[in-house]
TrEMBL record:
Entry keyword set: Cytoplasm, FAD, Flavoprotein, Monooxygenase, NADP, Nucleotide-binding, Oxidoreductase
Flavoprotein is among the record's keywords: yes
Listed name of the protein: Flavin-dependent monooxygenase
Subunit structure, as described in the record: Monomer.
Domain remark text: Consists of an N-terminal FAD-binding domain with a Rossman fold and a C-terminal substrate-binding domain.
Binding sites annotated in the UniProt record for NADPH: R40
Localization in the cell: Cytoplasm
Organism: Dactylosporangium cerinum
Binding site for FAD: D47, R105, D289
Catalytic activity of the protein: a tetracycline + NADPH + O2 + H(+) = an 11a-hydroxytetracycline + NADP(+) + H2O
UniProt EC number: 1.14.13.-
């Protein structure tokens, strides 16, 4: 009898897992809380790393499709100070996929959805409870009264994971406030801002404040402001509040806030403790943010997709022994994630430190090669 695998969460990790399992002839159902694929915007660009996100797409057989959607030019990255002076300007090799090409999160999600059978995703299914069954597996209860059973539950349900609570009570801790705005049709409506941002990413680094912007494939600009985490995070719901916090900055930069299509949207950035582990439990495991919620500094989606690829490979190696597959996956994942989570924590702290500009310039500036020893 084929094991019934349920994936809670239809984000990039959950969909990657479903796709690779499907390639191996292992059917699964992804339960997603959104009403359909177009229910909400999916956010900005992602840079997919060769050793993680791109490797997972290769395992999924989607490299060609990824390259047709990705934007190598999106790797361009400029770092400025509040006066508008350029501190770092990284220009990628034109047309090269050897680095970390950018792709819109929505385009990547559509790519994965299009690779799955129509019935692989059950929409409008927000998991609210998973109850162990006497003979193994779980009974799943969804918002609205729907229910289902599974032999194996994979929690890919993000920062507020319901599945996680069955394995660990690791607390979430705030590390920053992130405020987002969007500027649509920037090339036509705000050509000066489109030129300022360029085809990729722009960061302006002040003292414990970062103003960022990234160009999207539809011509829009996604604007973000990173601030320290405190009990005032919910107060940044007006452009005026943000502009007051950037007093003295070059108006050409703060114009990114003024041009936002709507009011700012603030949210608290939380993380799990570095080194979080849990004792193995039969029939359940976690991937992505549900397993290792880290600061959003470029690793989250990549590691979620690699989690999915490694877990799928473990299941495919012996579909008759899912618990051994889960054990093998978890031990390898814990080992892999620990140094990455530590690095993400250091970068997050560095970005909002009083010396962030100097620290980040050093971080992005290649060290000169050591001179060859003289005989």
């Amino acid at each position: 009898m084929m094991m019934r695998i349920a994936i809670a969460g239809g984000g990039l990790g959950g969909l990657t897992l479903a796709r690779i399992l499907h390639r191996h002839g292992i059917d699964t159902v992804v339960y997603e809380r959104e009403a359909d694929r177009s229910a909400r915007a999916q956010g900005g660009m992602l840079d997919l790393h060769p050793e993680s996100g791109q490797q997972a797409l290769a395992d999924a057989g989607l490299t060609a499709r990824f390259r047709s959607e990705a934007r190598p030019e999106g790797e361009e990255h400029r770092i400025l100070d509040p006066a508008g002076r350029v501190l770092v300007h990284h220009r990628p090799q034109p047309g090269s996929f050897s680095g970390r090409p950018e792709i819109d999160r929505g385009a990547l999600r559509d790519l994965l959805l299009d690779s799955l059978p129509r019935d692989a995703v059950a929409w409008q299914r927000r998991l609210v409870a998973a109850t162990p069954r006497p003979g193994g597996g779980f009974g799943l209860t969804f918002d609205g009264g729907h229910s289902a059973d599974c032999d194996v539950l994979i929690g890919a349900d993000g920062a507020r994971s319901v599945a996680r609570s069955l394995l660990t009570d690791a607390p979430l801790s705030p590390v920053a406030t992130a405020v987002e705005l969007s500027i649509s049709d920037a090339e036509r409506r705000h050509p000066d801002l489109a030129e300022l941002v360029g085809p990729g990413n722009l960061w302006c680094i002040g003292v414990r404040r970062i103003l960022s912007a990234q160009r999207l494939s539809d011509g829009g600009i996604r604007v973000g402001i990173s601030l320290p985490a405190d009990d005032r995070w919910d107060s940044y719901r007006s452009k005026r509040a943000l502009l007051d916090g950037l007093d003295g900055w070059d108006p050409a930069l703060t114009a990114l806030i003024e041009a936002g299509d709507g009011p700012p949207i603030p949210r608290l950035i939380e993380v799990m403790p570095t080194g979080t582990r849990w004792d193995h439990r039969p029939g359940i495991t976690l991937i992505g943010d549900a397993a290792h919620l880290m600061p959003p500094v470029g690793e989250g989606a990549n590691q979620a997709m690699l989690d999915a690829a490694e877990l799928a490979a473990a299941f495919a190696a012996d579909p008759t022994d899912p618990d051994q597959a889960i054990r093998a996956y978890e031990e390898a994942m814990f080992t892999r994630i620990h140094p990455i989570a530590e690095m993400c924590a250091r970068v997050q702290a560095m970005m909002l430190s009083p010396t962030a500009a100097q620290d980040i310039v050093r971080f992005f500036t290649p060290r000169p090669a050591e001179p060859a020893p003289v005989d």
